[in-house]
Amino acid sequence: MTLSIPYSALSGALEARGYTQLTPVQSAVLESNAAERDLLVSAQTGSGKTVAYGLALASTLLGTAEALPPAAAPMALVVAPTRELALQVQRELEWLYGPAGGRIVSCVGGMDVRREQRALSSGAHIVVGTPGRLRDHLERGRLDISKLAAVVLDEADEMLDLGFREDLEFILDASPGVRRTLLFSATLPREIVKLAKRYQHNALRIDTNDENQPHRDIEYRAYRVAPNEIEPALVNILRYTDAPTAIVFCATREAVRRLHGALLERGFLVVALSGELSQTDRTMALQTLRDGRAQVCVATDVAARGLDLPDLGLVVHADLPQNHETLLHRSGRTGRAGRKGVSALIVPYNARSKAQRLITAAGVEAYWTAAPSADEIRQRDHERLMDSMSTAEPPTDDEAKLAEELLGRLGPNGVAIAFLRLDRARLPAPEELFDPGPQVDGRNARESRGRQRAETHRHERIRSDRSRGGREDGASVDASAGPQGQDEDRRPPLAIGSDSGAAWYKMSIGRQKNADPKWLLPLICRRGHVTRNEVGAIRIFDKETVFEINADAADRFEMALARGSAEDIRIERQDGPPNKPMPTAKSRKPRPEGTAKRPRRPA
Prior knowledge:
The chain is α/β, with parallel strands linked by helices. It folds into 3 domains: 8-207, 3-Layer(aba) Sandwich (Rossmann fold), CATH 3.40.50.300; 218-376, 3-Layer(aba) Sandwich (Rossmann fold), CATH 3.40.50; 442-574, Alpha-Beta Plaits (2-Layer Sandwich), CATH 3.30.70. It is 40% helix and 16% strand. Strands 3-4-2-5-6-1-7 form a 7-stranded parallel β-sheet, with helices on both faces. The protein has a 7-stranded parallel β-sheet with strand order 10-11-9-12-13-8-14, sandwiched between helices. Helix 7 crosses helix 9 (165-174) and helix 14 (324-331) packs across helix 15. The two termini are 58 Å apart. Mean pLDDT is 80; it is low at 439-476, 480-499 and 583-588.
């Protein structure tokens, strides 16, 4: 199939890359009314913008010729917000303009300045770079833009978000007055429009965004989890989805380090991307992903700006984004160029309202569900194994001979069991998770929470009566009880006020944020490096939870706490057991006659 492009060199390059038709934005820049004009283009991430402005530059760079002249001072300049995006743009333009003799040079922060200087002095048709490094080359006289015929600002909204306004204005002011200015941006906020009015002339506005269906090729899923089970939930989401490539977004560099280590420990092929890495390390990490030697990338927002990874089928928000623009930008790494993708939000149920606000503001719909369970993952593994066996190729002679030998030695069942064990050994083990259950809005949610709290109070009073002789000065849970609250004859609980020397601690979460022993106990054990049998009573109040640790384990517990944690639930030492009782119906003060009942806050 021949693409309708007036330059055979570019058309051949596209066909060699598997293009059979152009995307809407690529077709729009080739319309006759766009020729040799400034362009103000907004298009969704993954819509082929790099190739689009590469095609748009063709008439300016090639004219009526089929090949470019010898490289000298650059004819076009492309400015991108990050190193990764700039290097990606360089690769795209190299294969697009390679048949036409194009020479593309990159200038990005973190790379060898002297090597870039030598490349520039050897001549280039197009220079691609980040704002800071390009300005540095201009100020030091290494970059000659006197012959510049076009400037492209790629991901202009991100460059302004990252604080590059001054650098951009310097570059544009230093460029020749007669030139084309092509501005590409996913969104057009007020600052972008002001920049366009200042530096563009009679610009053609092109908008290929579908406002009614943002990211229509992306399926949004919101996984409800207990606050202390974000990492196990991430493991299960990665295992269940089994995407060829996945990216996990974190809010901080520390979170990237922690999750990277946790996934490595569990057996995932994973790399990390954050601002603290050198450009060499970042380039190697990305190449590892592109080569298929790693499956998962853990990254901060800044490090992942502009990334385009092949076969990226899954984006996971391990930390919720700060705003809906970041949600859409993160999610836009998948579902690109007509391919389907999944954007998964891991939502601790005390952050559900924030997650719902982000989803609503982004204009997308998310499917709320529990994180995949271990049983669901095992079933999915079973289905994948059966599918792979049904499509297996005929065996070679060597394989048939070895199979016959194995059957003779182990028998059919033995061979099958050995194969299953080998298959499972290569996969990280799924995690057992606590499902907090579905949550609904409005009156039903309030009634459900009321019933849940009443039932929790009842079980806690029963356990408290059993362990403390009927005392009702607070809701108490014995950590040695079973997961549903049934007492197990493992050991008696540590008694309040006893001579056991137990240490008491306070946790910054209570019933108002759905604190529950089912997930509080694993959190205490994990944060303090203690076992279940070293945790005594857990007493849950409205805004806090108080618990006791066996005296023999207290020092170890406090050493583990001192190392810190990325979780926002604080744990600190408390002097002695709590002395405030749980409010009961008898202890509540009667409301003065004639006063109205205070309305409850909406759920």
